[in-house]
Amino acid sequence: MAQAPASYRLISEVKIRRETFGGILYKYGCADRGALSFINSPRLIELLIAAQQSFAGDVSAAIESQSYAVTSKQKLYAALDDLARRGYVLVGD
User: Fold this and answer.
1) H helix or E strand, kind and range, residue 42
2) d(CA 66, CA 87)
3) What pTM was computed for the model?
């Protein structure tokens, strides 16, 4: 993966629920009549919750506020790219 874009932001319609395996993302009120995705990474779920609660949905800011290793950041950004393809995250410049 190349350098991360400046901003990954959760869409406002996303609700997050913790589960023992990681968590579930719900997308309500969207044109596609909602969706849900199972996330098998507790670390990613905790990051998304932190972004929602402490960074107004700015997942990039939540990542940069932590001291993740470079490879961990790359994996998180790759996961965010997948969430962007599924419509849970917006990618900005």
Assistant:
1) helix 42-54
2) 25
3) 0.86
Q: What is the pLDDT of residues 64-79, one digit of tens each?
A: 999 989 999 999 999 9
Separation CA 75–CA 61 (nearest Å): 16
- For CA atoms 56, 85, 68, 2, the dihedral sign is negative
Instruction: In whole angstroms, give the CA distance from residue 12 to residue 57.
Output: 8
Considering the chain, what is the average pLDDT of its residues? 89
In sequence order, the 6+-apart residues with CB closer than 8 A to the CB of 15 are 25, 26, 27, 28
Q: Which domains does the chain have, with CATH numbers?
A: 7-88 (3.90.930)
